Amino acid sequence: MNEEFSNSEIEAARKLFAGPCDFMLGVAKLAQLPEAAMPEIAFAGRSNVGKSSLVNALTGRNTLARTSNTPGRTQELNYFNLGDHVYMVDMPGYGYAKVSKEKVSAWTQLIFSYLRGRPTLRTVFILIDSRHGLKDSDLELMKMLDETAVSYRIVLTKSDKVKSQDLQKVTEKSLEILKKHPAAYPEILATSSHKGQGIAELRATIRRLGEM
Predict the structure, then answer these.
(1) Exposed, middle or buried, 71 (CB in 10 Å: 0-12/13-18/19+)?
(2) Tens digits of per-residue pLDDT, 19-55?
């Protein structure tokens, strides 16, 4: 059962995301992080899982976050200011990015250092491709978040690309895995940037987290 929201919360979230949402900066080193002045929501996921497409769908903009068919396009922590309510942070993709080992190592260190030390980070949305489910690299990130007590939630992407029964199987399998991870939120939200499934609920979740 997914988190429930009132009609007024859904509408308030819609208005929030219809308002200003501006790219602030790309952070390649921790020293470049902005002042921890607002709550932050981070989006993590394997390369090409659809993070940029989801950010664009949430805000109703086609060009807010750059999308690419080339894995590893996002190489920095990309900060977006959502209506002076919350920072959304698009993190570098991990997994099978076709780049040098040195770059992968640098990105990984940046991700881990950020997650361990950011006091205003409310939660991390780990995006999982509905067609593939949780992979070893996802489980590695989940383990690290458990160890550092950083709350995280699983969001399934590209749900329109799988049959409903297959989506159900992936969801159930993922929920079983989450039971073994203490920092995981025990619910999963399926989304489709193309069809709009789950977008309203994800907006409401982000708005609610920004008020915590």
Answers:
(1) middle
(2) 999 989 998 888 999 999 899 999 999 888 998 899 8
pLDDT tens digits for range 71-127: 444 578 889 999 999 999 988 887 755 667 777 777 778 888 888 889 999 999 999
C-alpha angle 85-16-158 in degrees, rounded to nearest 5? 105
d(CA 71, CA 1): 33
Q: Which residues contact 28 (CB under 8 A, 6 or more apart)?
A: 75, 76, 77, 110
Q: Domain spans of the chain? A: 7-210
Question: Does domain 7-210 match CATH 3.20.10.10?
Answer: no
Q: Cα–Cα distance between 44 and 181 in angstroms, integer?
A: 17
Q: What is the DSSP letter of 92?
A: P
